[in-house]
Design goal:
9 strands; single chain; six-stranded antiparallel beta sheet; about 300 residues; alpha+beta
């Protein structure tokens, strides 16, 4: 998943990439076709209708939420794998991980009378160091227009990165006004929250987010998409949904890539196989070679493993 160019500090950034890293957010206009957004919205309609309201002040008692969107619409994969979005995710996160992963895919419906959400930073789900590492990137895909009246997402510009350590943000929030097909993209360190829905209509949309591949994601991907489901995903999507190891060896099943389960659970034992980064593999090769007898091509003299 990682694009090496995204990790090169000297590489030119797109306008959206510059704005994302400078302002903490960007809005991509017409990032997806109206037909694609309409198809996903239509597929999710029954679930919106049947899902009960959330409980608790954070999720919102006039709000509906549900996940597992990759199994609820065959069109969701096109949004999750949007190349421009993935490029921004790699830009924001690629310096801190070997590969990115899907953090969640969640539908949200804000009903009339919904209160404004508590302003928050999604990176606070994890207890890691703040102010330097970016842990995730969020993408809001509106199904209805996002406006000030219906609770469009509030974003505090330049509240990201080291500014996340400041108690009071320096700038006032803006309403991320957007239309279906637009993508509202913001960093996990950016202060944000849903606005209050003072209109007579529901505000619908979905949020897709990506995080560092070595983090525990918000949505448990292996439960959301068990092997018998994920094996039918395209390989890149299956890897993004957790069926790939994060080198070195993280997220393995019996020492192998969890995608081995796409063939079913074997009754026979399987061998653990190294999954290392190239730099680690090179160091290991030298270390192992130095311990092999000269007749095996090593540098000689090393003690054999017991």
């Amino acid at each position: 998943m990682i694009n090496p160019a995204a990790l090169d500090a000297s590489a030119p950034l797109s306008a959206a990439g510059r704005e994302l890293m400078d302002q903490g957010y960007t809005i991509l206009r017409n990032a997806a076709s109206p037909s694609l957004i309409g198809a996903v919205a239509e597929d999710l309609e029954p679930r919106y209708a049947s899902t009960p309201f959330c409980e608790g002040g954070f999720y919102g008692e006039r709000t509906k939420r549900f996940g597992r969107l990759l199994i609820r619409s065959p069109h969701m994969a096109d949004l999750v794998m949007n190349s421009e979005i993935l490029g921004l995710a790699e830009l924001a996160l690629g310096s801190w991980c070997d590969r990115i992963q899907l953090n969640l895919a969640q539908a949200i419906e804000l009903h009339p009378g919904a209160l404004a959400q508590f302003p928050h930073r999604d990176q606070d789900m994890w207890g890691g160091a703040l102010g330097e590492v970016e842990y995730l990137i969020n993408v809001m895909w509106p199904f209805t227009a996002f406006t000030e009246a219906n609770g469009g997402t509030l974003i505090w510009p330049r509240s990201h990165g080291i500014e996340a350590l400041v108690e009071e943000p320096k700038e006032a929030p803006i309403v991320a006004a957007a239309e279906p097909g637009d993508a509202i993209v913001f960093l996990g360190s950016t202060l944000h929250g849903a606005g209050a829905n003072r209109s007579a209509d529901v505000r619908r949309g979905i949020i897709v987010s990506y995080c560092l591949g070595w983090l525990k994601p918000y949505e448990n991907q292996w439960l959301a998409y068990p092997p018998e489901i994920a094996r039918d995903f395209p390989p890149d999507l299956a890897a993004l949904a957790g069926y790939a190891q994060h080198r070195p060896n993280l997220g393995n099943f019996e020492g192998q890539c969890p995608s081995v389960l796409f063939g079913g659970y074997s009754e026979d034992p399987i061998a653990a196989v190294d999954a290392l980064r190239p730099d680690q593999q090179a160091l290991l090769a030298d270390y192992v070679a130095a311990q092999r007898p000269e007749r095996e091509g090593g540098r000689g003299g090393g003690a054999l493993a017991a």
